Amino acid sequence: MIDRLEIVRLTAESPHLAWIAAWQHAEWGHLTFGETSASRLSALREECGEAAGVPSAFVAMSGGQPVGTASLVAQDMDARPALSPWLASVFVLPEWRGRGIASRLVRRVEAEVAASGITRFYLFTPDQQALYRRLGWEDHEVLDYRGEAVTIMTRLVDAPV
Q1: Are 135 and 107 in contact (CB under 8 A)?
Q2: Containing domain of residue 36, as a range?
């Protein structure tokens, strides 16, 4: 059930890392030329970071099993190197969608951003603009990225008092 869902920081030692990397590779591997399952796993380990802030990765857990993920990374789009940091890799298993998990993952990353003193960050999406707009994100730019039409979105976050 959704009430037993827990959002936790993903570590490089997590036993679920290979599984999560496989999800991400299947979902977005086509956007990264030459990416393999092994290179995605290596990149995910780096996204885990060693402390709070950028980079960080989070996983939604239910009953000891991962059901979704999201990351905070310094760079997610080589076409826009001046934009940083990025909400990245928001993914929920298909059978778990429609339960607010993606929103909870996004809010957890937003909290990480705010706690780090960062006030603006970015994401890009080909098809989830409505979700992010509901969460307070605004369109920044629409472009063709590696053969796919995507929207770069931005969010201002208040730093904690």
Answers
A1: yes
A2: 2-117
The CATH number for 78's domain is 3.40.630.30
Q: What strand order describes the sheet that includes 6-9?
A: 6-9, 56-62, 65-73, 86-92, 120-125, 148-156, 138-145
The Cβ of residue 10 has, within 10 Å, a number of other Cβ atoms equal to 24
Residue 150 within a domain: no
CB 87 within 8 A of CB 121: yes
Max Cα distance, the chain (Å): 44
**pLDDT tens sequence for the chain (161 residues):** 455 899 999 999 999 999 999 998 988 887 777 888 899 999 999 999 888 899 999 999 999 999 999 999 999 999 999 999 999 999 999 999 999 999 999 999 999 999 999 999 999 999 999 999 999 999 999 999 988 999 999 999 886 65
Residue 134 structure tokens: 């509901």
Residue 105 token pair: 């993952």
Number of domains the chain contains: 1
**Encoded amino acid at 125, one letter:** T
